[in-house]
Write a structure and sequence with these properties.
Layout: E1 3-7, H1 9-18, H2 25-34, E2 39-43, H3 53-61, E3 67-71, H4 75-84, E4 88-91, H5 111-123, E5 127-132, H6 136-144, E6 149-153, H7 155-162, H8 168-183, E7 187-191, H9 196-202, E8 208-213, H10 215-224, H11 226-238
Parallel strand pairs: 1-2, 1-8, 2-3, 3-4, 4-5, 5-6, 6-7, 7-8
Helix pairs in contact: 2-3, 6-8, 10-11
The protein binds pyridoxine-5'-phosphate (PXP).
């Protein structure tokens, strides 16, 4: 059964715009689960531009809510994450000037560091995922690094679909990467830039077990309500 993780970073962005306490990301975490999400994703960025340490701590303490914490390879953040104890970790690249995560990790350059981080989280019994580009080489390296899961970056596919360009080569790369990962016993997730159309396209790839979606869900819920949007995504990924 495919799962839906809802990224609630934008709830914190909205709260921070006023510097007050509403809307509360902790309340959002409980609500999205009640509405049918299988897990909640939060990104504790080095610049803390949306989710902050207290949010992460409070959200990870909520009972019966599976939390996927996205973090960079920064030593301090890794130490923080170990204290916060989420259910899952997803390691992502981070660059201070980016508007959002722009691509998968550079696995070649960071093998030693990633191997060490994965081992740290494995010892803490926290499922660890690497955010990767759809490439056979990156899946092989993820396997060598002993990652439990890979989250395949779907931003390029999403941009091609949205601009009505030919996306088939990119879709094939995602499919091939997913098949190899599954064969190697690595769980496959997908995320970034997904909307109804791109999720529908990717839901045909049986190997993908989890979708992590944020921006579109929060944006669309302004018009149609969070509950309805989450239900629509659940319907799409079930097919
Ligand atoms: N997955 C990862 C690893 C991400 O970094 C992000 C963006 O924070 C998402 C999924 C969600 O992307 P979007 O907000 O575009 O749906």
């Amino acid at each position: 059964m495919k799962r839906l993780g809802v990224n609630i970073d934008h709830i914190a962005t909205l709260r921070n715009a006023r510097g007050e306490i509403h809307p509360d990301p902790c309340f959002a975490a409980s609500e999205v689960i009640k509405m049918g999400a299988d897990s909640v994703t939060i990104h504790l960025r080095e610049d803390r531009r949306h989710i902050n340490d207290l949010d992460a701590k409070k959200i990870c303490k909520l009972k019966k809510i599976l939390v996927n914490l996205e973090i960079s390879m920064n030593d301090k953040i890794v130490k923080n994450a170990l204290k916060i104890k989420p259910n899952y970790i997803c390691i992502v690249p981070e660059n201070r000037k980016e508007v959002t995560t722009e691509g998968g990790l550079n696995l070649d350059k960071n093998q030693k560091k990633l191997r060490n981080i994965i081992q740290i989280f494995k010892q803490a019994k926290i499922r660890t995922s690497l955010f990767v580009n759809p490439s056979i080489r990156d899946i092989k390296i993820s396997n060598d690094l002993n990652a439990d899961c890979v989250e395949i970056h779907t931003g390029r596919l999403s941009n091609l679909v949205k601009s009505k360009k030919d996306y088939n080569a990119e879709l094939r790369r995602i499919k091939k990467s997913s098949v190899l990962a599954k064969k190697l016993n690595i769980e496959v997730h997908a995320g970034h830039g997904l909307d109804y159309q791109t999720t529908k396209i990717l839901s045909k790839i049986n190997e993908i077990q989890e979708f992590n979606i944020g921006h579109f869900i929060i944006g669309e819920s302004i018009f149609f309500g969070l509950s309805k949007v989450i239900r629509s995504f659940k319907k799409i990924i079930k097919k």
